[in-house]
Specification:
CATH class of the largest domain: Alpha Beta
Structural class: alpha/beta
Number of strands: 9
Number of domains: 2
CATH architecture of the largest domain: 2-Layer Sandwich
């Protein structure tokens, strides 16, 4: 019988689920906005991921939750920190990863790993929205664009406008001024992403970053972010393919579930969602 494992990442903005088959391959995944009913969000994405995988909850041998809402997943077997999950998610794609940058909706994290892929040091920026993906999304909404339009729009930018403020309130004022001056939405959004990229480098320096560099988080849907960081580092950076940069923590949790299951050497009792 196939032994599936699952990871649930209850983030502050989005909740993600990943189901792995016995070979460690992604069998199903799903993502929804978190909202304020965390347990319901977790159950919903889990159900969608199971459906995509063509299985039921009884086929899943072990579930690991992560993210800020990890304790609100009633069907979990165990919970882990998002730092640990992101480390495993990054090395799933790029085994030699030594520095991970995770840019989420409400936080930004820089993580340095040892040669075994375990967390050696980390720094978190959760003091101001100007240092997170939420700032880029808010900038887009202010100019009347949906999140889905950010990537295509930025790709048409000719030159990013400067956004130098380190505070979200003042940075928003800069955006408003740029709009009034007739700057294009593409150049303004490119400027917001460039500003975020430059700020992330400071966080990476604080963990004494070293290559290989792997970038994860929702903001990495937009290629401009990786380009900014790579240009400043003067080194290549890794970004998981397709939209999987957003699923890195959930994937890492599923990988940890597989390792935990292998150590147990048995099938835990099945659970209903």
């Amino acid at each position: 019988m196939m032994r599936y494992t699952a990871g649930i990442d209850v983030g502050s903005t989005y909740t993600k689920a990943v189901v792995l088959n016995a070979a460690g391959q992604i069998a199903g995944r799903a993502m929804e906005t978190t909202g304020f009913r965390l347990a319901e969000a977790a159950a919903k994405v889990y159900g969608e991921a199971l459906q995509q995988a063509g299985i039921t909850a009884s086929d899943v041998a072990y579930v690991v939750s992560t993210g800020y809402g990890r304790y609100q997943v009633p069907f979990r077997d165990v919970q882990v920190t998002d730092l640990t999950a992101q480390a495993r998610g990054a090395t799933y794609f790029y085994l030699k990863t030594r520095t991970v940058l995770d840019v989420g909706g409400q936080t930004m994290k820089a993580i340095r790993l040892d040669e075994n892929g375990k967390v050696r040091s980390f720094r978190v920026n959760d003091k101001c929205a100007a240092g997170t993906g939420a700032f880029v999304e808010k900038t887009a909404r202010y100019m009347g664009y949906t999140i889905e339009r950010i990537g295509p729009l930025v790709s048409t930018s000719e030159k990013p406008v400067a956004i130098s403020s380190v505070c979200a309130v003042f940075a928003e004022s800069e955006v408003i001024n740029h709009v009034s001056e007739g700057q294009t939405p593409a150049d303004i959004l490119n400027g917001a992403i460039t500003s975020l990229g430059e700020r992330s480098l400071q966080l990476m320096k604080r963990v004494q970053m070293e290559p290989e560099f792997t970038l994860v988080g929702g903001i990495l849907r937009f290629g401009a972010m990786a380009e900014v960081i790579s240009a400043h580092l003067k080194k290549p950076v890794n970004v998981p393919p397709d939209d999987l940069a957003q699923y890195s923590a959930a994937l890492g949790a599923a990988v940890l579930a597989r390792r935990r299951l292998d150590k147990l050497g048995r099938m835990p009792e099945s659970r209903a969602v």
